[in-house]
Amino acid sequence: MQINRRLTRQIHIGVVPIGGSAPIVVQSMTNTDTRDVRRTLAQITRLAKLGCEVVRLGVPNMEAARALGKITDAAKIPIIADIHFDYKLALEALSQGVDALRLNPGNIGGGRKVREVTKAAADHGTPIRIGVNSGSIEKDLLIKYGGPTPEAMVESALVHMRILENEGFDKIKISLKASDLSRTVDAYGKLSETVDYPLHLGITEAGTMLPGAVKSSAGMALLLADGIGDTIRFSLTAPPENEVKAAYALLRSLGLRNRGVEVISCPTCSRTDIDVIGMAHKVERALQYIAAPLTVAVMGCVVNGPGEAAEADVGIAGGKGKGVLFKKGKKVGIFLEQDLMPALLNGVREILAAVGDGSENHHN
Q1: How far apart (Å, rounded) are the C-alpha atoms in residues 331 and 333?
Q2: Which of 125, 193, 121 shows the shortest CA–CA distance to 154?
Q3: What is the biggest distance separating any 2 CA atoms in the chain, rounded to whole angstroms?
């Protein structure tokens, strides 16, 4: 499918371009205590290895804000500080060198406090994401619209946007998140017709891994297919590493990013004579940190198996206690079941060696 992306103005979070002609950026959020620099950096490192391009950190108090300097100095990807209520936390985060802020100008005190944060962000060249959530819409808008409707969410975003614009600030990114899919999609659609700032997509509080990934994919796919969205995050009740994996699976399926290994595997049936389920999960885990765009097939029988395996970069088609290995469409050999996975992984290593280290150019 051909997706014509809506052209937005471009900002940068650290070295990562957001909006314009830049690719859709994958982000996640740490769930460690930000004050624990060692554990937080370890999680950021894992996320970066999986392809996370920017990461958000919660900053609930001044001790966490003061830890940001050590984190930003050591992290290999840009850091976004998530700030609520206390404008001094935003000022401290900026002084610690964060690459972006996520806040709502209306909930950090208004007036002088907003001007102070906005001036500091402008002086540092630091973008601000206005993060509207259906659960925290202003009371006057809830009364006006009869609840957290898409219209209320959009107006909330515009109110906060104008607060920043009135201070001459335009390094802005906006999100409009609800746990309700339809409300979220409608809100983004309405906002995209009104502003040209880059938009960050997500279905907030989507749920646990499986239902959350399905719900998030459904909502974001509708928006992405309509050309809306410049960054995405899966908000899952699951380790944040899974958010990054789900994001790339969605973007790859829509043809919007081409990063990492896609495992093609059959659903199994009574014709299956090898452990396809176990082998497919092992292959996914073994290849999860590879950035090079590859397709790897794990098929369980002789009906569709040989064809799918031959179409993949590397693939296996199982038989009774054994299987055929294909590489780049050619049959390599027949292996016993216990030798199939080592042979498959060795085939992947050979392809990677031929193409280099497999690192992805950010604009692919």
Answers
A1: 6
A2: 193
A3: 74
| Beta strands across the sheet bearing 330-336 | 261-265, 294-299, 314-318, 322-327, 330-336
Tokens of 8: 């937005």
Cβ–Cβ < 8 Å for 7, 20: yes
DSSP structural state of residue 355:
H
Tell me how far CA of residue 113 lies from CA of 110, 136, 146, in angstroms.
Answer: 6, 20, 30
In the Cβ-directed half-sphere of 76, how many Cα atoms lie within 13 Å? Answer: 11
Q: Is 235 helix (H, G, I), strand (E, B) or coil?
A: coil
d(CA 247, CA 64): 28
Query: Whole-structure pTM over 0.90, yes or no?
Result: yes
pLDDT tens-digit readout, 120-164: 999 999 999 999 988 888 889 999 999 999 999 999 999 999 989
> 234-262, pLDDT tens digit by residue?
999 999 999 999 999 999 999 999 999 99
Q: CB of 234 within 8 A of CB of 247?
A: yes
